[in-house]
Structures are given as structure tokens and as C-alpha cells.
């Protein structure tokens, strides 16, 4: 992992969280959308917060695709989990949403769960099997 | 509240299908940094835009996006965001094992239990 790749993962996290919060602020001002008037979703696209959220989420998508081109899905997803904490913090500050102690505990548990995976191996067994013959060859003094 | 949770489950399923398809597509395309260095940005854009698997994945992500827009209009983002993310994380682990043949060991199942407990706390 290079610093550039860590930067890509940080962008995935921040762009996703900021995009969600921006969308939420926009949709709250647009009002509720019912199944009878589902076309109002398209009218909501004119809202600056919704439009800004879409731009941020497009940036998220670009960095997400880049990350998935060199890392496993089960590695990239935990790396973006800290976005939940960013969302909760931004929601409290900018949306004045009630983030209670129970919700913070829930967010902490989710982060702990994500930590279990994040501290484990990033590569799947399929990759390990591919690496095994080379490792055995090197251990036996053979050429890779 | 029931409407919110039904939407969250549907959103998680759509996101999982999108994630699995996109992950498979990007592995087929290869490291974008390397590809850009070897063949240039136009070739990278061409490879990405002509991937049928990627386009199908983006279609599912788009469905998830519109479901998210609907859910955010009647629910707190601090519930919808973590709940969808958590459910998607668990369903992705299961789907990655089945469709991408990734290894899901005890550590990853422990993670799933923690995440499920976190979602339960968020819902109360």
C-alpha cells in the first residue's frame, strides 16, 4: 500500500459521507416523497444540496472504482466504515439531528465489527493458493 | 418505521448486487493506475465504459441511489446511512463468498455479529 492508495481510500470515505449528508439536507428541504408522486424525485435534483450531494457521490464512485481495481471488496468496505462516524458528526453539527448515546454505541459496535475484518488478511484464499507454489519454491532454495 | 426498514433492506440488496458486479468488473479490467501508466487515460475510460458487468453493477447502484433518496426524505441520515452500510457489509460478505469465492473466516462472522448488534442499537 502506497500513500497514494491510502489517499484514495480517504477520499472514498469522506466523499461518501459528505455526499450522504448533503443529500439528506437537500431532501429534508424538498419534503417527503410518496409512491403516488415518485416523479418528485427528479424535481429534487434541482435542489443545490441534492445536486452538490450528487457531485460528491460521483467523486466517491470514481475513487471507489479506482480502489476496487487494486484491492478486494472485503478490504475496501472496512476502509470506508469510518464514514459512519463522519456522517453522525456532520448530522449533529449541520442537520441538528439527535444522535443519542445509544446511537453512538451502535456506531461504535459497527466500527468494532469493521475493525475485526480490517485487521485480518486483505487477500482471499484464492490469492494465497496462487502464492503458495512460489513460496514453497523459494523455501526449498529453488528459483521463483 | 416499517416502511423505512423495508426500504433499507431493499437498498442493501441493490447495493450488494452492485458492489459484487462492480468488484468483479474492476478485477477483470485491472489496476487503473497501472493501466493509465501503460496506455493512457483515454484507454482507461474506454475499458471502464465498455465493461458490461460494470454497467450492470452501476444500474443496481443507481437503483440503490434512488431508494436512498426516498428513504432520506422521511428518515434520519444517522439511521439510514449506518443501517444500510451495515446490512450491505454483512450481505456483501455472504455474497462475496458465494459469487467471488472470497474466504469468510470466524473473524469475519464475528464482525457480522458486532455489526448486527450495532444496527439493533441504532433502531431503538
Give a structural overview:
The complex is a heterodimer of chains A (144) and B (124). The radius of gyration of chain A is 21 Å and the shape is globular. Chain A is mainly alpha-helical and 144 residues long. Chain A has seven helices and no strands. In chain A, helix 1 packs antiparallel against helix 3 and helix 4 (73-79) packs antiparallel against helix 6 (101-118). Chain A has one domain (3-139). Chain A has helices spanning 3-30, 40-44, 48-68, 73-79, 83-94, 101-118, 125-139. In chain A, 74% of the residues lie in helices and 0% in strands. With 124 residues, chain B is mainly alpha-helical. Chain B has one domain (2-123). Chain B is 86% helix and 0% strand. Chain B is built from six helices and no strands. Chain B is globular, with a radius of gyration of 17 Å. The mean pLDDT of chain B is 81. Classes of the chains: A mainly alpha (144), B mainly alpha (124). At the A-B interface, helix 1, helix 3, helix 4, helix 5 and helix 6 of A face helix 1, helix 2, helix 4, helix 5 and helix 6 of B.
Q: Any descriptors?
A:
heterodimer; A: about 140 residues; mainly alpha; 7 helices; about 75% helix; about 0% strand; globular; disordered C terminus; B: about 120 residues; 6 helices
Please bin the fraction of helical residues of chain B: over 70%
Work out the strand percent of chain B.
under 5%
Tell me the strand percentage band of chain A: under 5%
Number of strands of chain B: 0
Morphology call of chain B: globular
Regarding quaternary structure, what we see is heterodimer
Largest sheet features of chain A: none
The biggest chain-chain interface is: A-B, 60 and 57 residues
- Provide the number of structural domains of chain B: 1
Number of helices of chain A: 7
Number of domains of chain A: 1
Question: In angstroms, what is the radius of gyration of chain B?
Answer: 17 Å
Q: Quote the average pLDDT of chain A.
A: 75
Q: Please bin the fraction of helical residues of chain A.
A: over 70%
Amino acid at each position: 500500500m502506497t500513500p497514494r492508495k491510502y489517499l484514495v481510500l480517504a477520499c472514498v470515505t469522506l466523499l461518501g459521507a459528505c455526499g450522504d449528508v448533503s443529500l439528506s439536507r437537500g431532501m429534508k428541504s424538498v419534503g417527503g416523497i410518496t409512491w403516488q408522486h415518485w416523479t418528485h424525485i427528479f424535481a429534487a435534483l434541482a435542489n443545490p444540496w441534492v445536486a452538490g450531494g450528487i457531485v460528491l457521490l460521483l467523486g466517491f464512485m470514481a475513487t471507489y472504482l479506482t480502489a476496487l481495481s487494486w484491492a478486494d471488496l472485503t478490504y475496501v468496505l472496512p476502509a470506508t466504515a469510518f464514514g459512519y462516524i463522519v456522517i453522525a458528526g456532520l448530522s449533529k453539527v449541520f442537520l441538528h439531528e439527535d444522535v443519542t448515546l445509544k446511537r453512538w454505541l451502535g456506531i461504535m459496535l459497527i466500527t468494532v465489527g469493521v475493525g475485526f475484518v480490517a485487521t485480518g488478511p486483505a487477500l482471499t484464499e484464492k490469492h494465497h493458493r496462487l502464492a503458495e507454489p512460489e513460496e514453497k519454491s523459494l523455501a526449498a532454495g529453488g528459483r521463483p | 418505521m416499517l416502511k423505512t426498514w423495508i426500504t433499507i433492506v431493499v437498498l442493501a440488496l441493490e447495493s450488494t448486487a452492485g458492489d459484487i458486479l462492480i468488484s468483479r468488473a474492476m478485477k477483470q479490467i485491472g489496476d487503473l493506475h497501472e493501466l493509465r501508466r501503460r496506455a493512457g487515460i483515454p484507454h482507461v475510460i474506454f475499458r471502464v465504459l465498455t465493461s458490461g458487468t460494470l454497467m450492470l453493477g452501476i444500474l443496481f447502484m443507481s437503483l440503490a441511489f434512488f431508494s436512498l433518496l426516498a428513504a432520506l426524505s422521511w428518515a434520519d441520515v444517522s439511521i439510514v446511512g449506518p443501517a444500510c452500510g451495515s446490512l450491505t457489509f454483512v450481505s456483501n460478505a455472504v455474497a462475496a463468498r458465494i459469487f467471488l469465492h472470497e474466504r469468510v473466516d470466524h473473524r469475519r462472522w464475528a464482525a457480522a455479529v458486532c455489526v448486527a448488534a450495532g444496527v439493533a442499537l441504532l433502531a431503538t
